[in-house]
Write a structure and sequence with these properties.
alpha/beta; two-stranded antiparallel sheet; about 350 residues; 13 helices; single chain; 6-stranded mixed beta sheet
Length: about 350
């Protein structure tokens, strides 16, 4: 059975596609709208028994993937940064990108990105929504702080400016009409966002309690329902990591390694990683250290801190925590304080 290779350069409103045969000859190059009917029309126009498609990992990729999957098209998600042929092209056009993606797919020289199962994607969307609410709350709180600074208003009497007492204080301030209007508007937005965050947190808690692996992670001091679900949904299926080092690399907790001849150089930690896992592990690690002074993770932190400082100690402790998580999930067991893994 001969295979037709398709490369798709996906944009907001359209897709540029190129189809090649097994010898690399161009079958067709088309530009069409990025809706389900147009994608289906393109696939049917190929009149091929077996189609293998590669699509860019853009913000609009998932509905394209689902449409192709429903049409029995084998679909690969492309990691554009690691596909050097495309990243280093001197000339970049949509048609050239689509054709290059198809050629890389045909020859096997393509870097793929992980496509999680649909249930994990659904949960990941909820967790990322919760993270976006947190960022928006911080953004509008900073705007309120800016108003206070512009007007020389101090608030040292309130440890939590956005608690019940602090909010009452903020609403009672006497300001100019424009500043008062802005402050009231921002306070209303913050209150609404906090309510949405609370509702989303309840949904996440319910998801966690119905997830056996997530409940295993909550046995680690410092990991809540929220952080457990972030780790699991951003990680995806743990079995895709054959060892904990690969998982730590995915989270950006290993140094960049350069080898030339007999010389090996270890540089700074990787920047190309899943930033959400890296961030939540940093938060969990510091909470764990404060509440679990006798664990090996805490002891490792203080040992590294004494030699190399707090930043490197946090990375080392986060790596140790993630290694424990890998073993816990693989062995289906709860956290052990004296686990040497």
């Amino acid at each position: 059975m001969r295979t037709t290779y398709v490369g798709m350069d996906i944009h907001k409103n359209f897709i540029q596609a190129a189809a090649l045969d097994e010898e690399g000859n161009i079958i067709t190059e088309q530009k069409f709208k990025s809706d389900c009917e147009e994608i289906k029309r393109f696939v049917e126009s190929l009149n091929a028994q077996k189609i293998h498609a590669a699509i860019e990992a853009t913000c609009t990729w998932y509905h394209v993937y689902e449409t192709l999957n429903a049409l029995d098209v084998e679909t690969t998600l492309v990691n554009m940064r690691r596909t050097k042929t495309i990243a280093e092209s001197k000339i970049k056009t949509d048609k050239l990108d689509a054709k290059t993606i198809a050629q890389c797919l045909r020859t096997g020289f393509i870097a793929t990105a992980y496509i999680p199962p649909k249930n994990i994607m659904e949960q990941r969307n909820i967790l990322r929504h919760r993270m976006s609410l947190r960022k928006e709350i911080v953004r509008y709180k900073n705007k309120i702080h800016a108003i206070l600074l512009r007007n020389g208003i101090q608030h040292h009497d309130y440890s939590d400016l956005f608690g019940a007492g602090g909010m009452k204080f903020l609403r009672s301030l006497t300001l100019s009409d424009s500043e008062h209007y802005s402050l009231t508007s921002y306070l209303n937005i913050v209150e609404t966002l906090v309510q949405e965050k609370t509702q989303t947190a309840k949904k996440i808690e319910a998801l966690c309690k119905n997830n056996h692996q997530a409940m295993l992670l909550t046995s680690i001091p410092g990991i809540s329902y929220y952080s457990a679900m972030i780790i699991l949904t951003e990680m995806g299926e743990v079995h895709r990591f054959s060892n904990p080092k690969k998982l730590c690399s995915y989270a950006g907790l290993v140094p960049r390694t350069i080898q030339s001849g007999n010389h090996i150089y270890h540089g700074r930690i990787l920047k190309e990683c899943n930033q959400n896992i890296k961030w939540i592990l940093d938060q969990c690690t510091h909470i764990h250290i404060r509440h679990c002074p006798d664990s090996l993770i805490t002891k490792l932190y203080y040992r590294v801190e004494a030699k190399k400082g707090a930043n490197k100690a946090t990375v080392a402790a986060s790596r140790k925590l993630l290694t424990c998580i890998w073993y816990m999930l693989m062995k289906d067991e709860t956290f052990k304080y004296n686990n040497d893994n």
